[in-house]
Write a structure and sequence with these properties.
Elements lengths: L9 E4 L10 E5 L10 H16 L4 E6 L4 H12 L3 E7 L11 H8 L3 E5 L1 H4 L5 H11 L3 E2 L7 H7 L12 E6 L3 H9 L5 E6 L5 H9 L5 E4 L12 H14 L8 H13 L8 E5 L7 H10 L8
Parallel strand pairs: 2-10, 3-4, 3-6, 4-5, 7-8, 7-10, 8-9
Antiparallel strand pairs: 1-2
Bound molecules: pyridoxal-5'-phosphate (PLP).
């Protein structure tokens, strides 16, 4: 059902472009794993779809915001594997804006059924009463939490690192819910440190990583979250555009842009072990740029170049 061609390639980033010496930086191009969806969301869904089929479900239901990479991945892979998909979206007002929201428009075209709930109702999304109502509306479904993190998602993310990555000293990733990071920790080697760059404020990800990680060779850094989830400023936009100009590689504003901003800052300030080799995971997220650029335009901020 899933092919075995799921390893991606590593690309060296010449650090002299950023006036950094005595480190080496390599990017794992998980963003290239699939043309339409984030690499890590593909990883997180793989074993969940296999499980949903094994249990003979015909629908998958999940949750997310207006620009969710996870909801997009469920819509694309659900369609590919012949499952109905239902997206419970935060924000009632969006029901009338599907056409002007590139993410929602895309998932609806994939055949996903969208159901919009108020921000207040959305807070109850993990409660039994709320889920029971959804079952009355949509019939039985395989449930995936917001962000898609569960044990099977972590198992999928354990496949990101391969044997040929054993020489790196640090493995860096962006952190949303922490599921991807837990998978990386589990397949990292004891001499490696996994650094998670949080895309949001708060500590719940630490609990998620703790719950699923089998080792504790990791650190979560939240100094580069730019004030919170999906918050960005002109500094970050400038960095993303500069990174693209210098390396040809597109970063996204929610996850990988913040991670790379953090990595370059740590290296410039020599905060990591001298002469170490760093592997950063490009988790993808590029589908969200279009939506973000529309918001930036409204706020009179510069655009992310694509
Ligand atoms: C969802 C996402 C993340 C965060 O993954 P978690 O497993 O939730 O921590 C990182 N990068 C991209 C591009 C994502 O879409």
């Amino acid at each position: 059902m899933f092919n075995n061609l799921e390893t991606t390639y590593n690309q060296k980033i010449p650090l002299d472009l950023f006036s950094i010496s005595s480190y080496s930086l390599t990017l794992k191009r998980e963003d290239d794993l699939h043309p339409e969806i984030s690499g890590n969301k593909y990883r997180k869904l793989k074993y969940n779809i296999i499980e949903a089929k094994r249990l003979e479900y015909s629908s998958i239901l999940t949750f997310g915001g207006a620009y969710s990479n996870h909801v997009t991945a469920v819509a694309v892979l659900g369609k590919k594997h012949g499952m109905k998909t239902i997206g419970i979206i935060r924000g009632e007002e969006l029901a009338f804006k599907v056409q002007e929201n590139p993410t929602l428009n895309f998932v609806e075209n994939c055949g996903m059924k969208l159901h919009f709930v108020s921000r207040d109702d959305y807070k109850h999304k993990t409660e039994i009463v709320f889920l029971k109502k959804l079952k009355e509306l949509f019939g039985d479904f395989y449930l995936l939490p917001e962000g898609g993190t569960n044990a099977l998602a972590v198992k999928g993310c354990e496949e990101i690192l391969t044997k040929s990555d054993s020489s790196f000293d640090y493995i860096c990733t962006s952190v949303g819910t922490g599921g991807t990071m837990a998978g990386l920790v589990n397949s990292s080697l004891p001499h490696q440190t996994v650094l998670g760059f949080s895309a949001l404020k708060g500590v719940f990800q630490t609990l998620v990583v703790k719950k699923y990680a089998l080792k504790n060779n990791y650190n979560i850094i939240d100094d580069y979250c730019f004030g919170g989830y999906a918050k960005i400023d002109s500094n970050l936009i400038r960095f993303i555009n500069e990174f693209k100009e210098k390396t040809g590689i597109q970063l996204d504003p929610i996850y990988t842009g913040k991670m790379m901003f953090g990595i370059i800052d740590l290296l410039k300030n020599k905060k990591l072990k001298k002469n170490s080799c760093i592997l950063a995971i490009h988790t993808g997220g590029l589908q969200g740029i279009d939506g973000m650029n529309r918001l930036l335009k409204k706020k009179d901020l510069p655009q992310i170049n694509v």
